[in-house]
Structure to design on (363 residues):
């Protein structure tokens, strides 16, 4: 593996004080960050345990460069911003931000942060993409964890806007502000969690839906393909426009969420009690995998990912454009008159304000 390719002088347009970023790990998440950071004009240091890291990253950039939210980029242009460093200390030295994407192994991540924290400057942000571990656990062996925090993306991170920002007991509030500014500058939607909870928020919601999905397939109510179709034809587009609370607030008509709970939510606890808790045993997993293979097993990972990414980009751009377009007052009055089934979305705030998904960007 060569130590360097490209320069180390980033422009970092819009990313606050961050001009140089180190990315630890070159799995799916790490690759997404590498592409996004390079597209934002940052100088990117890449550290990986893979002996073929440079070849691996360069090959992947072709796919990732084609699906960046602001439009396709030349993968060679992105690659020119990368520097490959097999030595961790050299990778993080002088970096303004360190984005860690190692496997979910606490001992491994602790060691990485202990070494990265010692080699990086005192103002460097130490950021973890972990989906399960707390910042306090991650920083237990770090001499100064005041700049260490979780910054959990939703996959793929170069497309999906959310970044869950989680501070530890010893995290400096200024580091949280700096992290938020950094991710906003990248076009992301950072949300600071008020406290640490296992799995954070988005994955807990996704896990709850997956549990019921597996239950329904296991019980023979629907197939894997049918369930995917139900989601993409109902709550998928709805939640791209509004979140669950606002959706049910609208479902209550002019009386809002209060009316919904009083008149439609009375059987909620009974309904929750009837939700499934399927075992993750060999039979259940076998059923789900067999149906998934039948539904989309004839397409390669690259084909499926390209289809997903193209559609997700189109949805995000369409929502941003809709939010930026002033609503027709006549349409609003018509919706108000038919408030018995108020599932539609309304613009929040002044024209041009994007409240969901991504910060305003050109569509």
């Amino acid at each position: 593996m060569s130590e360097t390719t490209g320069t180390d002088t980033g422009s970092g347009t819009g990313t606050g004080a961050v001009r140089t970023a180190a990315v630890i790990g070159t799995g799916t998440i790490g690759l997404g960050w590498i592409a996004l950071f390079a597209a934002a004009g940052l100088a990117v240091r890449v550290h990986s345990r893979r002996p073929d890291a440079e070849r691996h990253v360069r090959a992947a950039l072709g796919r990732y460069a084609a699906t960046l939210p602001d439009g396709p980029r030349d993968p060679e242009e992105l690659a020119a911003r990368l520097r490959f460093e097999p030595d961790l200390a050299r990778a993080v030295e002088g970096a303004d931000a360190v984005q860690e994407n190692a496997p979910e192994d606490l001992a491994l991540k602790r060691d990485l942060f202990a070494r990265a924290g010692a080699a990086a400057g005192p103002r460097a942000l130490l950021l973890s993409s972990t989906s399960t571990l707390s910042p306090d656990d991650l920083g237990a062996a770090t001499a100064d964890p005041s700049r260490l925090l979780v910054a959990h993306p939703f996959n793929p991170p170069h497309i999906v806007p959310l970044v869950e920002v989680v501070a530890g007991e010893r995290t400096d509030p200024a580091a949280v502000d700096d992290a938020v500014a950094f991710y906003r500058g990248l076009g992301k939607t950072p949300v600071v969690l008020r406290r640490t909870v296992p799995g954070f928020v988005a994955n807990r919601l996704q896990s709850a839906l997956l549990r019921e999905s597996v239950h329904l397939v296991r019980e023979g109510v629907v197939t894997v393909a049918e369930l995917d179709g139900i989601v993409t034809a109902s709550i998928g587009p709805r939640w791209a426009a509004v979140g669950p609370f606002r959706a049910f607030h609208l479902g209550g008509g002019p009386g809002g969420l209060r009316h919904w709970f009083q008149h439609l939510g009375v059987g909620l606890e009974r309904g929750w009690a009837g939700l499934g808790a399927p075992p993750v045993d060999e039979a259940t997993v076998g059923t789900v995998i067999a149906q998934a293979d039948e539904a989309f097993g004839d397409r390669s990972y690259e084909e499926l990912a390209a289809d997903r990414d193209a559609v997700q980009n189109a949805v995000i751009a369409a929502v941003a454009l809709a939010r930026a377009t002033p609503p027709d007052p006549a349409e609003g009055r018509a919706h108000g008159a038919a408030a018995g089934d108020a599932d539609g979305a309304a613009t929040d705030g002044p024209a041009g304000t994007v409240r969901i998904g991504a910060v305003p960007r050109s569509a």
Notes: The radius of gyration is 22 Å. Strands lie at 20-24, 43-47, 82-84, 97-100, 125-128, 148-153, 162-167, 189-192. The chain is about 45% helix and 10% strand. Residues 1-7, 339-363 have pLDDT under 50 and may be disordered.
